[in-house]
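re: that chain from earlier
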Amino acid sequence: MARREAGNMQGQRFLGNTNSMEVHDLDNEKKNCQIDKIIAAGHEKPHIFLHQAHRDGFDNCGNCMIGSLR
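^ sequence. v structure.
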């Protein structure tokens, strides 16, 4: 898959889902991440760096990232 310009993303690598509080790595996106649905619902919060997403309370996605705390 690829980074998105849609919604608020503007090509950022990390997408925080404000509904599930998971962060996704768009450079390693998996089909189960359902990124287009997250953006369509307006639940996307872009991050340039992973540590910013963690600081904002997001946990790693269990599909596209390792180290999920769930």
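The helical segments are 35-40, 50-55.
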